[in-house]
Known about the structure:
Elements: H1 4-15, E1 23-28, H2 38-45, E2 50-56, E3 59-64, E4 69-73, E5 79-83, E6 93-99, E7 103-108, E8 114-118, H3 120-126, H4 141-149, H5 155-159, H6 170-180, H7 193-212, E9 253-257, E10 260-264
Antiparallel strand pairs: 1-6, 2-3, 3-4, 4-8, 5-7, 6-7, 9-10
Helix pairs in contact: 1-7, 4-7, 6-7
Protein name: Formamidopyrimidine-DNA glycosylase
Organism: Paenibacillus faecis
Catalytic activity: Hydrolysis of DNA containing ring-opened 7-methylguanine residues, releasing 2,6-diamino-4-hydroxy-5-(N-methyl)formamidopyrimidine
Amino acid sequence: MPELPEMENYRIQLSKHILDLKISNVVVNREKSLNLPQGSFIEELLGRQVIFIERRAKHLLFHLDNGRRLLLHLMLGGLLYLGSGEDRPERNTQVEITFGDDLTLYFIGLRLGYLHLLSAKEAEEALSHLGPEPLGRKMNEAVFAELLRKRRGSLKTVLVNQEVIAGIGNCYADEIAFAAGIRPSAKVQNLSETEISAVYKAMLEVLTEMTEAGGYMELPLTKNDTLTGGANELCRVYDREGENCPRCGDAIVKTELNGRKVFYSPGCQYDR
């Protein structure tokens, strides 16, 4: 599932291409991906412009020139592609939005995700349950420590809880735990102030590094995009079962925690 780095990469790149271009065409291949009847959705978008793109947690918010918002959540397996009809990937699309003459944003894999057209108030309410952004201005080490002190359970469970901290999922929770030298199964209530500080610093480092590397998406956003997917090679433990740990050399282990797969290095990550 795309997480903060993937969606932030999309936000940055899309902002360079589609802002202030009139929407000239909308194709809906799966009405269930929408919150409105197909005809109403298309009618409301035609002629509009995206004036700003915001990321909130794992969502993108496309701010339209009439004050409404397109709220996107890719969920599991969702992808975006921006290009012309000639270079579009051979993938099934659920929604296609064309900007200007022939620049189309293809929404791929939205069978579990969604693209909802909302008022500003509705969009705010839809995202009101989310916790603070890990890289946001309201986040600092003291705030982070207080968030963790209010929780019980495993470190990974807390990090992926969107109501605690917004935007972290399976992959980066494991990478953050590895960078901090703590197992994802460690109980947050047992962590010392020093360990919480280590997790906080690891969170900043991992999310910043992976965002700058373009996240781990499998498909470039555009024909000439060489950034998206660059984080694939930077994961130290996630999806690396059986490989040697880059820090201690032990074989990386895959296990399960509360229904989620977990990757860690037993030689240099300790439990609590």
